[in-house]
């Protein structure tokens, strides 16, 4: 059971990569919201494959077909359903994939979970392609949040050992966050782009792929959003972020570094600024204390593993013969998933924050 | 809205630190389960204050009073409610706490969230004390899991710069995991205990407190538990883990280190062992692929910040006068929360895994 | 799984009739609401046994003990938990009850559902006593609704063949609805009280019991509350109303009579009254069209069966011996449950309407 | 918020009558279930318009397009989404409908609920057409239930004053329940068909429409399904049944008649039959005691009002001009909705019972 998330802004996703279509139903969008479909398309394109020489050359026209919930360009208050047709599904031979469990992929656990009946073609229900509906829903959520003065943006934290700068209280602006969307490799320090490209290309040429981190910020969130315990901001966002394939770690604010701090450092001291607004001098807690926003920027980082499909020979099992075998996964693979995951991370962040705001 | 979590093993917590009582209702325990109350008490005591010279000297008799759901020593299938009375709530003067927002605590965001009506005494709803009901529920979940051959245990990952060894495919056994409960400072390398005590005492003597990390493992989980996307194991566990106060980061398997790996390394290759069982050679994915268990040990680490209440003078605001002020928090505080958080982490891990198993 | 209901005003009930206590946790009460505990006690007393010669002489002091969620007489926004201790549980011999399945009671289905581990003493989890926590939660909901100008009241629709008048657009006023609480046999036509008493006493003297109907109205609900399809007002209210033991039928507005009407009659024609407010000339739809309130009074009737526990000899089975046997249920039983069910019906109506209003 | 219902067999519906499409996502179907699409089509056709001279002559090809969740003719365990395209939506002038609130329809409450942004064309989200996805989901649920020996069938209880016989312990068989699907006017006493046709035609010729009742039974449900209080069988089924447009009343077993019975009659006495199975002599409780099935047939009746759209002149309001006006609704309307509602009632009954069985 994993199709639906949310309390008030409720998102239900469906689809398998090689079925007819994938899609999403959003329940709980307020009526009367004007949706800018160009912005939606822009976000969809950021995630789509084939946008860069660093991505898979596989092209998909991820054009959402809105079936319900919109009338005269505005939301009706009824569930909004969008469908994305699977047009580029080659009817190739998947018989090997059925037997040989690809390491790092869901083949084996899915087979155990669904007793062998899951659609294994192209990872089926587990395909990264299912993040497209999330980006669609997130682009709606982003537009609702923007109308409340909240901006969300993410950039590359690192690719292997190449690090970008971090978002700080000094450098973070709505303009910077928005500008990330213009680049396939969004960076604060744009001089790092070349090094990153080089790392990716080297791995790709070796039949391998690379991991990295993504840093995301929500700017403009007022104090008082969220809850203690079960529905803390961290709980809701991490639930959604770990729903994104390949994410294996999350840290808010200073995250794991906070474990090395004394309270006198970690305790982000409050002060009134010259305008009489409550601020903290540091932001080690990433804008969240006790599970609730404190008015400072919400910031987090996620660890994203290298995409599992590589051409390098790997050891694995043949689940039907019961033998240890080797495997080479051919096809059009991404040598890195971080750039295409960035709009997905922004999307689920927007979904989670909007749901928390609507359920206050 | 944050009182209830879970789909099938559903936990509802209630209470404020200075109200009459705190407690928990568990809905969805199968009928006929024998509950060993000594084991429950043992877990409660691990979390309770005053168990060690490294903890607050404040004593609380956290004896759960079971109001329903048990009959003749077995669960009835009806909701099980346990209440823990707040006996040690000094009626001291909290007027300063109402005005001066303690840095690192929920005082300010809670005031914004609840429009000033929250019970601010001793952090109220945000008190770490509310983790006692979680430990109670977790101790029930642990007993149900144990009867299915699943063992959960956690130890100190690090305290400031002192690191313990990690749980690995080589050293992890049910016996080791169970043994952690016997120590206030559970460690794989027990020789580190002295260094850790020293770090804690130094901070305490300076009126400060320290952070650390906790590593937790679930051993014996069969392959096929969990879900793709919204209810992945990582999603459900992180949701619960970030509900625990002071947790600011989570990583599964190799976590943030996986971001620096090529897929050829990160892809935990499968093999049949001599008994014909499916295993992976490495466990960088922490026993979870595609959100579903793959049969290897589930392992994760959390970052825990230093407890916020310190006697050192801190800068903050007086929310009633609108002035920048200083604050000294006197009282019986923990110089570290990691040891007392360990049974809480185990508890929420057990709650999450049992809920996932029951909702297959 | 049946302990929790609601989306925003979320009610979790617990307890068995012969355990230590029963109770309720309410999550989602807005912070800062002043609760009049006298009004709560008044509602509790309406439901309590022993209030009338027509009720069981069994006395219970159903005094709710509030454990959390209140501070300085106001709600804090944290979950409010109230416990009612079971003080009048005679430790009599229940061994016959374990074997002989009482007709009309949940003994047999409960045994099947819970594999024999349910607490069978005094109906356990199935006891009408568990409605006391519902009345507590409802009395909170009623107070919140009253502050929005919404009044809820219920009276006897009928007892066997003795009918009271119906609530109509002409006779329904907030004052009338409130006055119902003052009587053990609330009636519009008070002259029917004697006939009803006589019907009840005749049955009681014969070792039997009687059924009846209850009519309930919510006055002052604005148009636009509710939802199409799954969360229609009728859906939410009927879900809660059928949770009340002994309810076997529900009809909104003209209910089953509407099945005999042409649309030209059933279609409650709209008009603007002299004040320019939208009204309908008739109210066959009971204030609800398309699942949503239309601004007219919400009115419904429920059928309540006779309490099952009677002293008359009944045929049944001995589930342990596998034999057909006879049974006489001795004890202090209600010869009718309608009067004590009235505050319960009002309570769940208030819970449902408030939840719908808070989740708009 | 009304798009999703269910805990384990979770149904999400979407669509407006004049949008691109309507549809449904079902989460929680077990993997590996063979779906007979002919049976699905058969159920869809029972509900579709234009199947009889007694129904609207409007033709709709309600052919479900399955987008996901099926592979090689079997369910995959992933969410199953089916879409039904809206092909017969005439782009006529809806401007009058926007202003003049049709009595008995959701026009006015919907306008209040959605602040005027709802798609008002052809009732939009409130259209009876949205029951087509429910029938689709129900036909899947029915097939799963049938494989467990559970049969569901419904017939006309009454049309205006013409009554069919009732389903009883004597006449109810799986064969009878299944046979109902073969008739547009399913009846136990087929001699009543002519009278019913006559009543319908008389009303239609007068520009009016008629109401009626439906009786539905689930045969083969084992004892022990359901829950006390919030998720009683009656609670779950009534929640779903009142989601069906035009339903205004529900009664289980003897329903409102039970209110006139003494307990000695209402208490369905248990006995062991010759095969040693537990039975009750009567079935006044409709197979449900304490919210849980007792092994006897589950039976209920619903009251269905006459379809609101009639050509007869009606009084109403013009919400834009603020005036009292008259209205004639032209078009292709049903003079009765009962026959087309029968497969919908069966469908939601199947959905509810399957969800209860899967969440035990």
Question: Secondary-structure map with pairings?
Answer:
The structure is a homotetramer of 360-residue chains.
Chain A: E1 4-5, E2 10-15, E3 21-27, H1 37-47, E4 65-68, E5 70-71, E6 74-75, E7 80-85, H2 95-99, H3 107-113, H4 131-146, E8 151-159, E9 162-163, H5 174-179, H6 193-205, E10 212-219, H7 233-241, E11 247-252, H8 263-266, E12 270-272, E13 278-280, E14 288-289, E15 292-293, E16 298-304, E17 314-318, E18 323-327, H9 338-358
Antiparallel strand pairs in A: 1-2, 2-3, 3-7, 4-7, 5-6, 8-9, 8-10, 10-16, 11-16, 12-13, 14-15, 17-18
Helix pairs in contact in A: 1-4, 1-9, 4-9, 7-9
EC number (chains A, B, C, D): 4.2.3.5
Pathway (chains A, B, C, D): Metabolic intermediate biosynthesis; chorismate biosynthesis; chorismate from D-erythrose 4-phosphate and phosphoenolpyruvate: step 7/7
Protein name (chains A, B, C, D): Chorismate synthase
Could you explain the architecture of this structure?
Chains A, B, C, D: It catalyses: 5-O-(1-carboxyvinyl)-3-phosphoshikimate = chorismate + phosphate. Chains A, B, C, D: GO terms for molecular function: chorismate synthase activity; FMN binding. Chains A, B, C, D: InterPro entries: Chorismate_synth, Chorismate_synth_AroC_sf, Chorismate_synthase_CS. Four copies of one chain form a homotetramer. Chain A is an alpha+beta fold. The first copy, chain A, has one domain: Chorismate synthase, AroC fold (4-Layer Sandwich). Chain A is about 25% helix and about 20% strand. In chain A, the strands form six sheets. A five-stranded antiparallel sheet of chain A has the order 1-2-3-7-4, covered by helices on one side. In chain A, a hairpin with a 5-residue loop joins strand 2 and strand 3. Chains A and B meet through strand 1, helix 3, helix 7, strand 11 and helix 8 of A and strand 1, helix 3, helix 7, strand 11 and helix 8 of B.
């Amino acid at each position: 059971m994993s199709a639906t998330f949310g309390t008030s802004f409720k998102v239900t996703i469906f689809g398998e990569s090689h079925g007819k279509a994938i899609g999403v139903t959003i329940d709980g969008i307020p009526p009367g919201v004007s949706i800018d479909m160009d912005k939606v398309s822009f976000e969809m394109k950021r995630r789509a494959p084939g946008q860069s020489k660093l991505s898979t050359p596989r092209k998909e026209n991820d054009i959402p077909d809105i079936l319900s919930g919109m009338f005269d360009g505005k939301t009706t208050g009824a569930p909004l359903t969008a469908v994305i047709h699977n047009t580029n599904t080659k009817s190739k031979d998947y018989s090997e994939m059925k037997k040989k469990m690809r390491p790092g992929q869901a083949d084996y656990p899915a087979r155990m979970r669904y007793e062998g009946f899951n659609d294994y073609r192209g990872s089926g229900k587990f395909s990264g392609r299912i993040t497209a509906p999330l980006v669609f829903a997130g682009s709606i959520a982003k537009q609702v949040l923007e109308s409340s003065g909240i901006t969300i943006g993410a950039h590359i934290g690192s690719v292997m050992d190449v690090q970008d700068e971090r978002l700080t209280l000094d450098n973070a602006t709505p303009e910077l966050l928005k500008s990330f969307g213009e680049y396939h490799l969004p960076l604060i320090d744009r001089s790092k782009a070349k090094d990153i490209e080089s790392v990716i290309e080297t791995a790709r040429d070796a039949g391998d792929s690379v991991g990295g981190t993504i840093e995301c910020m929500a700017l403009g969130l007022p104090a008082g959003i969220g809850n203690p315990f079960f529905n803390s901001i961290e709980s809701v966002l991490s639930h959604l972020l770990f729903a994104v394939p390949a994410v294996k770690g999350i840290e808010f604010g200073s995250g794991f570094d906070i474990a090395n701090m004394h309270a006198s450092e970690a305790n982000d001291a409050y002060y009134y600024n010259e305008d009489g607004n409550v601020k903290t001098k540091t932001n080690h807690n990433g804008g969240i204390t006790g599970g609730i926003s404190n008015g400072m920027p919400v910031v987090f980082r996620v660890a994203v593993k290298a995409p599992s499909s590589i051409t390098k020979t790997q050891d694995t099992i043949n689940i039907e013969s019961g033998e240890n075998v080797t495997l080479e996964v051919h096809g059009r693979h991404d040598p890195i998933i971080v750039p295409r995951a960035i709009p997905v991370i922004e999307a689920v962040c927007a979904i989670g924050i909007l749901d928390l705001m609507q359920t206050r």
